[in-house]
Specification:
The protein contains 16 helices and 16 strands. It is of the alpha/beta class. The strands form three sheets. It has a nine-stranded mixed sheet with strand order 8-9-7-6-5-4-3-2-10, with helices on both faces. Helix 2 runs parallel beside helix 3, helix 2 crosses helix 11 and helix 7 packs parallel to helix 9. The longest helix is centred in the middle third of the chain and has 17 residues. It is globular, with a radius of gyration of 21 Å.
Length: 407
C-alpha cells in the first residue's frame, strides 16, 4: 500500500500566486460535481511564456504512467465516493504520449470511481499532434472533448512564442477534430503579444468564429518568473509587454465575442450555446476534485494539496510506497478571500447573501464597506443581490479583488 507523505502549511496571509492556480468558490451551482485532473508532465519544447511543470525528457513515461495508476489506487477514497462528472487530461502536453497510456488511465479511473454516463472527459492537444489515428483511439477510450492549444493563427506570433506548430496546422487541427466527431472542443488564444497588432488579434477571433468553435479561452500574455520571455525582457532583447495594447486587445476581445454570440462567463473564458467548460467551472464553484501526477492539485472541501513538482521525486516516492505532497488548511479569512477572487471573475459574481450567511459580521461589514469603491468607480455593480464586474472592471479584476480582501 502506498502511503501519503504530508507537508502541512497553514498560511496566515493571502497567497496571490497560489490563488491564481487554485480558483475555487463557495456557493451552490448547477454544474459538475467531483472531477479528476491528470497532469501529463511532458512537452516537445518549452514555450517562451510557460512556467508550468513539465519535462522535455520522456524516457520515464512508462514509469510515470505506472506511478499515476498507483496514485489513483491509493487515493480512490479521496472524493468520498462522489460521482465523477469531469475528467481532464492537462499538462504539459497529453497529446504527445502514446494513446495506450490515456486508455490505461481512463480504464483505471472507471474501475475505481463511479462515472456519470454524461461526464465531460477532456484532453489537451497541440495542433501538430492531432491526427486521424490518435483521434479515433482517444474517442474509443471515452475522450469526448478536446482543448487545442492554438494560441494564434499567425505564424509570427507562434514563432515568437516558440510554439511547435504553425498557422496552417492550427486551422487544419480544428477541421480534423470536427471531421472525426469532436464537436465539443475548446481552443486557447493569447493576446498582447509583443508584435501582435490589433488587426492581427481581431483576425484571430474572426478565424475562430469562421471555424465555428463553441468554446475558447483567451489569455493576456504575462511575464512569469524563470521563463525565456522574462529573460529576454530583462536582457532588453525584446520590448516589455505593452499594457496599453493589452487593454486594447481585451476591449476588442469583449466587443467581438459579444457580436459573435459568445458569453463571457469568466474573464478568460467564452462559450456559445451554454457550452461551459464543466471541469474548469467546478473549480470556480467549489466542487471537490482529485489531482493526479507531479504538481497536480487536489481539493476536498477541507484542505487543498499539491504534489511535488518533480518527475523523478514523484516516481521515486510512489515506488517507495509514499506520495509526497504539500497541504494547506484555509482560515476563515482565506476562505473569504478565495471566494471573492474566484466569484468576482465569473458572470455570476459575488453572492451578497452568501457572504452575509457564511462569514462573520465583521467580514460582511468589511465586504460592504470595501465594495463601495469599485461600485462608485463603475468597475462593478449590484445586480440581483450579486456584486458583478462591469466590462471596464474586468480589466482590473485582480486589484479590485485585492481591495476586497482581508489581509
Amino acid at each position: 500500500m502506498v502511503k501519503e507523505t504530508i507537508v502541512v502549511f497553514q498560511t496566515k496571509n493571502t497567497n496571490l500566486a497560489l490563488y491564481n492556480i487554485c480558483r475555487f468558490t463557495f456557493y451552490q451551482n448547477i454544474f459538475s460535481l467531483a472531477g479528476i485532473y491528470i497532469h501529463i508532465p511532458y512537452c516537445k519544447q518549452k514555450c517562451n511564456y510557460c512556467n508550468f511543470h513539465f519535462s522535455i525528457k520522456k524516457d520515464d513515461i512508462k514509469e510515470m504512467i505506472d506511478s499515476m495508476i498507483l496514485e489513483l489506487e491509493t487515493r480512490k477514497n479521496y472524493l468520498n465516493n462522489e460521482i465523477i462528472h469531469s475528467i481532464y487530461f492537462g499538462g504539459g502536453t497529453p497529446s504527445i504520449i502514446n494513446s495506450k497510456y490515456i486508455i490505461k488511465i481512463i480504464s483505471k479511473i472507471k474501475s475505481l470511481f463511479v462515472i456519470n454516463p454524461d461526464a465531460e472527459i477532456t484532453m489537451e492537444f497541440n495542433p501538430d499532434d492531432l491526427d486521424k489515428d490518435k483521434l479515433i483511439e482517444i474517442k474509443s477510450a471515452g475522450i469526448n472533448r478536446l482543448s487545442i492549444g492554438i494560441q494564434s493563427f499567425h505564424d509570427e506570433d507562434l514563432t515568437f512564442m516558440n510554439r511547435s506548430h504553425n498557422a496552417k496546422e492550427a486551422i487544419s487541427s480544428i477541421k480534423l477534430a470536427k471531421k472525426y466527431g469532436f464537436n465539443n472542443l475548446s481552443i486557447d488564444l493569447i493576446y498582447g503579444v509583443q508584435n501582435q497588432t490589433s488587426k492581427m488579434w481581431k483576425a484571430n477571433l474572426d478565424q475562430m468564429n469562421t471555424l465555428d468553435v463553441d468554446h475558447f479561452s483567451a489569455y493576456a500574455l504575462t511575464v512569469e518568473p524563470n521563463t525565456k520571455l522574462d529573460y529576454l525582457i530583462n536582457k532588453q532583447k525584446i520590448k516589455p509587454i505593452d499594457d496599453k495594447k493589452t487593454a486594447e486587445h481585451f476591449k476588442i476581445l469583449q466587443e467581438n465575442a459579444k457580436k459573435m454570440n459568445y458569453t463571457q462567463y469568466e474573464i478568460s473564458n467564452f462559450c456559445k450555446k451554454n457550452k461551459f467548460a464543466l471541469h474548469n467551472t467546478s473549480y470556480w464553484k467549489n466542487k471537490n476534485y482529485l489531482g493526479i501526477g507531479p504538481s497536480a492539485h487536489s481539493y476536498n472541501g477541507v484542505s487543498r494539496q499539491w504534489n511535488m513538482s518533480n518527475n523523478t521525486i514523484y516516481i521515486s516516492s510512489i515506488n517507495n510506497e509514499k506520495i509526497a505532497f504539500q497541504e494547506e488548511f484555509l482560515s476563515i479569512e482565506q476562505n473569504y478571500n478565495e471566494y471573492i477572487l474566484t466569484a468576482l471573475r465569473t458572470i455570476w459574481g459575488v453572492n451578497l447573501d452568501y457572504v452575509n450567511n457564511h462569514f462573520s459580521e465583521s467580514i460582511n461589514s468589511h465586504f460592504i464597506k470595501s465594495s463601495k469603491k469599485c461600485i462608485n468607480n463603475k468597475d462593478a455593480k449590484i445586480d440581483d443581490n450579486h456584486l458583478i464586474l462591469t466590462n471596464k472592471g474586468m480589466l482590473f479584476a485582480d486589484s479590485i479583488s485585492a481591495d476586497l480582501f482581508i489581509i
